[in-house]
Amino acid sequence: MVRPATRDDASQIARILDDFNLEFGDPSPGERFLTSRVTALIADGSKHFLLAWTAIDEAGAGPEGLAQVDFRPTVWSDGPVALLEELYVVPGRRGHGLGRELMDAVLDLARGRGAAMVELATGEDDTAARGLYESAGFRNRVEGEQNAAMLYYELEL
Amino acid sequence: MVRPATRDDASQIARILDDFNLEFGDPSPGERFLTSRVTALIADGSKHFLLAWTAIDEAGAGPEGLAQVDFRPTVWSDGPVALLEELYVVPGRRGHGLGRELMDAVLDLARGRGAAMVELATGEDDTAARGLYESAGFRNRVEGEQNAAMLYYELEL
């Protein structure tokens, strides 16, 4: 099952985000900081979190997966662009279809808000995630003749 | 020279964005639609446009390049993330350093707003753009051991 998060879920979301970064070797600002940020961003409507469990009767326990979605306006259409900022399933619960269930919920959320496009960035070597994205219809190729891959770059300030 | 755009620049920005998409074989909603969107997004502060000219005395003419930047909040830091959505120099003005000048202005804008990160997506075969981004310090590699490339995916709804 998947449901939207509320502010009451903020500390559990923070724990998952923290674990996520530690698993992938990224620095994390820590659970306390994340709880504060997640609470504020849910409260003002600027981020959307979807939480997933493999079984309905486990919904009292911490979520086993989450998706984090940002919507922003675009010059190209009246509807917004959805950016899937995080998609994560806890290690012990992988292989049960939670990623797919979260993705379906993300696409429903995006369509419900009239989004024209959903975007995401992922590592070239994350074949499980890429398989999920590609089976959902995501494309990594530039439109037009060249058919080159689209790359994501970042610069920390 | 580079300066921030105002609503009065909207129709010239729309023309450049339209030309940009036609040059790269992407569909465009047309100049009239783009003018309306750009006007609204400058007015409400949700997009930032920087305009560039090779010579100050040409500032009365249409801009020769532009950068479009979006800021969004993030769970990972108090400061926002800047997304460089468009960076474009008109064909006849390339090779004069306008791209670099626009990039410097983008980074100044992002630092001025306390951004923690600047992101962008580009085509693997766009070597001129990638050279500019990499010389400005942008990295396409996932942090940590794997050092895999980061890929950008999109799905039109």
In short:
Chain A is an alpha+beta fold and 157 residues long. The first copy, chain A, contains four helices and six strands. β5 of chain A pairs antiparallel with β6 of chain B, so a sheet runs across the interface.
The biggest beta sheet of chain A is recorded as: 5 strands, mixed
- What is the percent of helical residues of chain A? 25-40%
> How large a portion of the residues of chain A is in β-strands, by DSSP E?
15-25%
Number of distinct beta strands of chain A: 6
State the strand order across the main sheet of chain A.
1-2-3-4-5
Distance from N terminus to C terminus of chain A (CA atoms, Å) equals 39 Å
- Counting helices, strands and paired strands, the structural category of chain A is alpha+beta
Q: Which chains share the greatest interface?
A: A-B, 61 and 61 residues
Q: Characterize the overall form of chain A.
A: globular
Contiguous helical run count of chain A? 4
In the predicted model, the low-confidence regions of chain A spanning at least 5 consecutive residues are none
Q: What is the arithmetic mean of pLDDT of chain A?
A: 93
SSE order of chain A, one letter for each helix or strand: EHHEEEHEHE
Query: From the structure provided, what is the oligomeric state, counting identical versus distinct chains?
Result: homodimer
Any idea what the radius of gyration of chain A is? 16 Å
